[in-house]
Amino acid sequence: MRRSMGIVGSTVKTPIWALLMLMGLITTGLAQSPTPAAARRGFWELPKNLTAVEGTAVELRCGVTAPGSVIQWAKDGLLLGPDPRIPGFPRYHLEGDPTRGEFHLHVEACELSDDAEYECQVGRSELGPELVSPKVFLSVLVPPKTLQLTPDAGSTVTWVAGQEYVVTCVSGEAKPAPDITFFQSEQIISDVSSDVNEGSQEKLFTTEATARVTPQGSDNGQVFVCEGSNPALVAPIQASFTMNVLFPPGPPAIEWPGLDKGHVQAGQSLELPCVARGGNPLATIQWLKNDQPMPTAWGTEHTQAVARSILVMTVRPEDHGARLSCQVYNSVSPGTQEQSVTLQVTFPPSAITILGSASQLENKNVTLCCVTKSSRPRVLLRWWLGGRQLLPTEETVMDGLHGGHISMSNLTFLVRRDDNGLSLTCEAFSEAFSKETFKKTLTLNVKYPAQKLWIEGPSEGQHLKTGTRVRLVCLAIGGNPEPSLIWFKDLRMVTEARQAQGSPQRVQLGNLEKSGSTFSRELVFITGPWDNQAKFSCKAGQLSASTRLVVQFPPTNLTILANTSALRPGDAVNLTCVSISSNPPVNLSWDKEGERLEDVAAPPQSAPFKGSAASRSVFLRVSSQDHGHRVTCCAHSVELRETVSAFYRLNVLYPPEFLGEQVLVVTAVEQGEALLPVLVSANPVPEAFNWTFRGYRLSPAGGPRHRILAGGALQLWNVTRADGGLYQLHCQNSEGTAEALVRLEVHYAPTIRALQDPTEVNVGGSVDMVCSVDANPVLPEMFSWEKLGEEEEEDKSLDDMEKISKGSTGRLRIHHAKLDQAGTYQCIVDNGVVPPARGVIRLVVRFAPQVEHPTPLSKVAAAGDSTSSATLHCRARGVPNVIFTWAKNGVPLDLQDPRFTEHTYHQGSIHSSLLTIANVSAAQDYALFTCTATNPLGSDHTNIQLVSIGRPDPPLGLKVVSLTPHSVGLEWKPGFDGGLPQRFQIRYEALETPGFLYVDVLPPQATSFTLSGLQPSTRYRVWLLASNALGDSGLADKGIQLSITTPGGSQPPEQPELQAPPRPCSGPPGLPLLPVLFAVGGLLLLSNASCVGGFLWRRRLRRLAEGISEKTETGSEEDRVRNEYDSQGTGDRDTQSSTVSTMQIEPYYHPMRDLGPRLPPTLEETSYPRASAGVEDEGVVFSGHLYDDVGGAYHPPGTWGRLYDEVHVGPYNLHWPEDKYEDPRGIYDQVAGDVGTVESDSLPFELRGHLV
């Protein structure tokens, strides 16, 4: 229903809210025309009907003169509103200048929904009523988007020419409905029906067109097009497919080479092309000969649409009259198309034959017939003898094969001796074959006899030895045919017998040879006994010649005859030797294995080959040893100087007999192989070999570890010692049995069966270390001993020990045992079978306790303020384990007192006791403590003094270890450190130069130092001082100074960058007065200050003592150590008043941290080792074996090891070595380890000396 502004004045009741809204719109002035009130109202430009294509922009124009009125557009009666942006229609908006009355409706990208009626409306105002423009139409054209073609567009459609097909084309939706046109090979198809259908939306239409098509061959490869058009399209749209039209080919054409079609000659190679044009697909060509297919190939040329096939054949006479046809067709041909040609073949006779014999006796007639094979056309015949033509007696022509003719000519003539060897020719000729001549030739053979015959060779009656090569030649003169010259032996024709491959040919019969009119044939043969007195003849026709040979030969056959074949020990046998034939006669003799035998003559016999026979006999009695022996008969010819022999092998049946070479003992290695051989003699061969071991019969078929070989030998593998023993062999044959015993000795590597481990002995006692083994063989020198840990190439530690070997037991006997003989010994047993056995025996030498007495360890310092603790360390050596007891000032110490705690450790022969005193009191505990070590062999003790913290003792043993022109290397032993960390300082002076120089030793706890910067050839005096926080050791001890003189040198020393500079000090003489006065004043001030600082004594002492106590308690905890000597393999220690961890122990205390500042070491200080070996690696891990480290607990004399590690004392040397000992700070330097870096002037005066 169309709505307009005129509705406001109608009688329809309008809601009040609608009127109010309309009043509001009017009052807003939207789209109001500012035209003056005096202007005339009306349209000055009216809208027009428009047509637009979908997707294009269009503008409906409207020009209005209506001041104060609202202008808007209506679409199919729907008001679009006066807002120029037209809300709700994003593609619509108003364009133009409203002040000029331009209100054009602009539609962007037209759609089908824009196809409607439009009108421009002007609202009522004070100046006049509403105005409405005439209705205009906006027609939107929609082009078709697609064409759907059936068959599918873009494809190739195969049709058969002449058949009707239907093609359908459907357009896409469009407005207005599209027009569809079909093109076949660019020609419009008129037989088309079309239908217009409504689309999916209103105002849209589709067109469906159908065309009926009858393709022709010319349409093949052309395009079939469906074209759609409507007003919205600039150019029509198309859909197409390609037509593949099948149609038959054209008729074939045979292209005959030349003008005379069908005429060919036999033997000609005929190439005959056949061409067929057109057709889809191109034609298939087939050749036929007399309606029978011929195997041919054909090819196609698609660009020219031609199929071609060439028939290649060789013309033969039988092809005369043959019909050759070429047929063409394809898949749509209604039938085959054909063209043919008939052959006319010209051919000569394929052969000429002369019938009859050309061989005849002289002066006789010869009759011959010449016949040709079929030819087209016929041929003529003529005869020739040499160069002379002969006239035929008769000529005949007959029909032949393949339409040809046969010619025949007969000839008869008289032959003479002069005609022998002439050529007789029959010649055929014709005008059709003028370039060819056909002949058949025979050689005339006129026969006549030979004139003379004789033999050349050894003279008759000459003696020839057998094996002689004889050559006989038969010769003849003249004759035709050539004489055959045939050889005969004793009336039998001689031929070459077939010889075995590789054997020499005894008879060679030559060929007939001709030289001029002389003919010859030789006979070569090797003489044999059979040629003796033989007659050799040569024959040629009726002629004959002969000769006779005399041949000497040894016995042709020497035979030994026995009166029995089965012999047993003790039987007798009679042997006869017979020489069958020989020329001249021979002498016979007998021997057995080279021993001449007595024989007797036998009766003579007849002999072949016209020779002489002989025989002799011998009588023998046999034994088992004669089995296999040869009895030989020799036939000797004195004239021929030849001997022929034959032997008879004795076959003596006897039971098995073992030979003297039979092995009765076999040796094998365990896990190896063993072969028990069998050397037995028997005839016949033993039927069975049965082996028995320990009453059990071994399977003849073999087992997992044995097999019986073909000769009876027993083979064993993976031999074990249980396989050793006697093996019984039982041999049997048909004559009897025999038995033998073979012993198998199995050698195996030694195995330790028993070791006396450990072996214990007191010092000075005697003991045997026993090693028992299981071995085979047991050799007297298979035991050897060595001491483990010896580094010398030649172990001399066993020289004073006695080595005893008896059977499977070896002993190492020690007389007067020494401490250095304690350790681990290895028993090595080698009997030649790998691997040797090795066993370890620990020798423990028991001795009384030996307590160490090093001077630096005889003091322990602790603060006596009743809050600190101190630890006393007592170490001793001894086997077996020692028991420690403690006494204070000679009175046994009551360890039940909670202030005393003892920890005992055992490591091999090293034993330690740590006595910790808690709440040390200067009044009660500053005393002399005695440690006593006791075991069943004795006791020993040492004294340790518990003192107050004080200055260190002077160092000990200052010595020179190296000396150069510019430096000196020094070593020393630190003394007691006073309970505080100590450091060392070197003072030195050149004797010719006044003043002293000082050098601090870095690191502070080093016990070696290189003093550099010296002058060559100069005398120096060097002092060594020790100091701690309470002062230094002083210079009173002579042992801390020495004098040196540097050697001369030419090069100045290189000063190291980090060398601490010496501090010069003025000498004592010539002291100035002013410094003396200042020194006196300083002493007075110092005495006053001592009074003021007295009250600080207790507080400072307590603080220091607390720090020392804490560090002492911390450092006194030691881990549990297992005692190797203990029979249970676990650590043995006293657990009175404490519990200790069972972890790996570090019996040393870690060195106390340095009190002085860490300065970079000088070049000389970086490479000198500490005097105490092993301080850096103090962890001790003990083996779980009971006696693993007993031998390692004894080292060479003079070596200090770790505190709980191996320690060695030489025999009867009960004093600790003085040159090398354990750094005592490794035990006691942690007592005051927590004091920290304390300068001496920061301590109270009371701590700068001893308290007691």
TrEMBL record:
Q: What is its main location?
A: membrane
Under InterPro entries, the record lists: CD80_C2-set, Cell_adhesion_signaling, FN3_dom, FN3_sf, Ig-like_dom, Ig-like_dom_sf, Ig-like_fold, Ig_sub
- Cellular localisation: Cell membrane
Q: Which Gene Ontology BP annotations are present?
A: cell-cell adhesion; muscle organ development
How would you describe this protein's topology in the membrane?
A: Single-pass type I membrane protein
* Transmembrane region(s): 1073-1097
Matching CDD domains, A to Z? FN3
Residue ranges of the Ig-like domain? 34-139, 251-342, 349-443, 449-550, 554-645, 750-832, 849-948
- Name the family: Belongs to the immunoglobulin superfamily.
Protein name (record)? Nephrin
Gene symbol? Nphs1
